[in-house]
Amino acid sequence: MNEVIRQLYDRKSVRVFEDREIEEEKVKAILLSAAMAPTAGNQQLYTIIRVTDESLKASLAESCDHQPFIAKAPLVLVFCADCLKWYDAFRTADCEPRKPGVGDLLLAVSDTLIAAQNAVTAAESLGIGSCYIGDIMENCEIHRESLHLPRYVFPAAMVVFGYPTEGQKARQKPVRCDMKHIVHENGYRVMDADELRDMLIRDRDAEDYDRWIKAFCKRKYNSDFSREMTRSVAEYLKDFE
Questions:
Q1: What is the CATH number for 42?
Q2: How many domains does the chain fold into?
Q3: 197-207 burial, b if ≥16 CB within 10 A, otherwise e?
Q4: What is the mean pLDDT of each run of 10 residues along the chain (241 residues)?
Q5: Range of the domain at 143
Q6: How many of the other CB atoms lie within 10 Å of CB of 191?
């Protein structure tokens, strides 16, 4: 196994960081790695907001599901799917562009998340941990105001970075699903109840599984923050109707 693949296998979310800054040359390497990611038509349909203001970091820690470790992260990047800059470039060059639509947004989100993952992979290679914060998609009104997000700009992901503590390094990475459930051949295969249970049961017994999946659905899928995320994303989508 080569070093890149080993790091991809080993990488896990880090939520506790050492109390030290990330060297600026390493920050620049992470950002440049993001910019080197595959991108549709070389358009780079994203803008990266680097959050350095401590009060803004504290605010994001609250608005992103009350997670104090966000405020303690040495590096906080918000990856925004940006359909505005090309629209403005076309408009100001008298190209008579149509308004951005949902297809443009999804393409921009793809570009954005590929760039974010490049940043995460680069950080891992430098011994720097990271954690994706999907909650940036929640609280649309708050984040639009605090990050000065105009129409046609959507915060697709926030990633926080820092040097992991020894405890975080030692923490076991969660087990992924067996590949037979993840890779479908020549088309999508709808899984029945037995296969879904087989995919998710892992080292649980049947009684533990039933208890776990009900609790997980309540804690994640049916949670208040999940409903808020759906509401906020719908609000952002109004720009693209």
A1: 3.40.109.10
A2: 1
A3: eeeeeeeeeee
A4: 95 97 98 98 98 98 97 98 98 98 98 98 98 98 98 98 96 94 98 95 85 95 97 98 90
A5: 3-174
A6: 13
